[in-house]
Write a structure and sequence with these properties.
The complex is a heterodimer of chains A (139) and B (164). Chain A is mostly helical. Chain A has 5 helices and 1 strand. With 164 residues, chain B is an alpha+beta fold. Chain B has 2 domains: 32 residues, no CATH class; 126 residues, Umud Fragment, subunit A (Ribbon). The chains are: A mainly alpha (139), B alpha+beta (164).
């Protein structure tokens, strides 16, 4: 699309150098965190119901804590991409972007509240689609 | 030491570069200089945005006036950087350690976007030999084409207390 102006493009780049690494966004952290939530739900499901074994209870508590943390990471990472990376032209191209963001944040909350494999899978899929949208805007 | 043409034979046989005629000197630098740059990162926002395409004047032999936008080699990293001249040779600036008197070939360069800019507050005064050119015109994007104004806050900024 820039073929006509290609020869106008400057051969060199000058950096208005920032402390904050501007423009570095990556949905991978959100995907990894969503995957972790799903994996924790899976591990929690493997703990025998009604167990009084200390090791099992320890494992349960650790899995729940990790699930909680990583659901929060999903929310944070998605919110950053949504607020800081996406621009109005991206919303024009993907009119459901705000709705998708909102749903992921809600889903992450749902995964904190429950131990629900279906909700975890839903979160993973929604984050994956979000990541696909992100990468499509980089092309 | 200022800019010398890299090709010594074009310097009219002088080895020190001291007795170059200004015209030959300017021509030498114009030939080897950087004429156009694309801006990356946001420390010059809103005056300059990432993706702006600029024309440079690669011929200045001294630091342009305060408020001018210059492209230079960042000390230490050597990265091609773009900032505004906050203070020039002979100027005094107040820093946390006291008063800094800029030498005859030194400038104090700051980003407009103070909070996040990596500039002289980080690496100190910049020597003239690091100067690549003065940005004077933006030719893209089409909606922002025009001369690059000297910052109105240039002189005032020079007296401002830099971040420690």
């Amino acid at each position: 699309m820039f073929r006509a102006t290609g020869w106008l493009r400057p051969p060199t780049t000058a950096y208005a150098h920032c402390d904050v690494p501007c423009g570095i966004y990556d949905p991978h952290a959100a995907e990894l965190a969503a995957r972790t939530v799903a994996r924790m739900v899976e591990l929690i499901g493997q703990i025998p119901a009604g167990t009084t074994d200390l090791a099992d209870r320890n494992k349960l508590i650790r899995c729940v804590a990790v699930k909680e943390q990583h659901a929060e990471i999903v929310k944070h990472e998605i919110a950053v991409i949504w607020a800081d990376y996406f621009k109005p032209e991206h919303v024009e191209r993907y009119p459901d972007l705000h709705d998708r963001t909102w749903k992921i944040l809600k889903l992450a909350g749902k995964n904190k509240q429950n131990i629900d494999a279906a909700a975890a899978a839903e979160l993973e899929a929604a984050v994956k689609e979000y990541a696909d949208i992100f990468w499509s805007t980089k092309k | 030491m200022t800019f010398e043409p890299s090709d010594e034979s074009s310097a009219g046989g002088t080895s020190s570069g001291v007795s170059l005629s200004p015209l030959a000197d300017a021509l030498g630098r114009a030939r080897s200089g950087v004429w156009r740059v694309a801006v990356a990162e946001e420390s010059m926002a809103p005056a300059l945005a990432a993706g702006d395409w600029l024309l440079l004047d690669p011929t200045p032999r001294r630091w342009p006036r305060r408020g001018s936008v210059v492209v230079f080699h960042e000390p230490e990293s050597g990265l091609l950087a773009i900032k505004r001249v906050a203070a020039g040779p002979g100027d005094h600036i107040r820093i946390s350690a006291g008063i800094l008197h800029l030498g005859p070939e030194q400038a104090w360069l700051l980003g407009d976007n103070n909070a996040s800019s990596i500039d002289s507050r980080r690496y100190g005064p910049v020597e003239l030999e690091a100067l690549v050119g003065r940005a004077w015109f933006r030719y893209a994007p089409a909606s922002r084409v025009g001369l690059i104004p000297r910052g109105p806050q240039g002189p005032r900024r020079a007296r401002a207390e830099p971040r420690a």
